[in-house]
Amino acid sequence: MNYSLIIFDWDGTLMDSVGRIVSSMQYTARVVGLNVPSESAVRDIIGISLLPAIDRLFGRLNEVQMAQFMQVYRQQYVYDDATPTGLFDGAHELLSDLRSRGFRLAVATGKARHGLERVWDETNSRHYFDYSRCADESESKPSPKMLLELTEQAGVGVQQALMIGDSIHDMQMAQRAQMAAIGVSFGAHDSAQLKAAGAHAIISQLSELSSYVADDSSAVALKELL
Ligand SMILES: [Mg+2]
Fold this sequence. Notes:
The chain has 226 residues and is of the alpha/beta class. The chain has helices at 18-32, 39-45, 50-58, 63-80, 91-100, 113-123, 145-154, 168-177, 191-196, 207-214, 216-225; strands at residues 5-8, 104-108, 131-133, 161-165, 180-184, 201-203. The protein folds into 2 domains: 5-16 and 86-225, Rossmann fold, CATH 3.40.50.1000; 18-80, DNA polymerase, domain 1. Helix 6 (113-123) links the parallel strand 2 and strand 3 (131-133).
């Protein structure tokens, strides 16, 4: 398969942010006076947009609770929570290698635009990406809309694009767009969950992706899975 566009999820795929999301979400629930969700409950909503994620974890909040939730969560996640985040090992090398080999790269994320811009600045990684779609510009995963907008913008068919993500929402989004998807096993969901959600292959570290799209036999193996 001759891919020309590789689309990455952000949190849990390129950035090691799952721990901070879980602890910030639990802290915010405590402060706002909601039931504190378990770690696995929070992991399950990572990847979808914040508003539907809050709905799923806590039920419908009233306007005052929602405003307080958003304010506390943002303050906690961005400024106060000390759980370290950064790009996963090998991320810079992978992105730079893929670009030098002529692939175009994109991000499809449940983050809001201001959140993606902030972490691009913090990790000096904006320059790798040709295109991006954020939660506040499109529909929440698993709607295929972000992927369809990205392929349209890049002028490629969905068959020429490959989605990489760590959550079942990424895999379901790709499946609904009829796009091939590779799951990473080090983020929100494990290999079995990702496969059940439609992953065509699983990698356990980012560097494996490089050979996946380079090696002809792997490319053929992936094609046969589709
Ligand atoms: Mg993710």
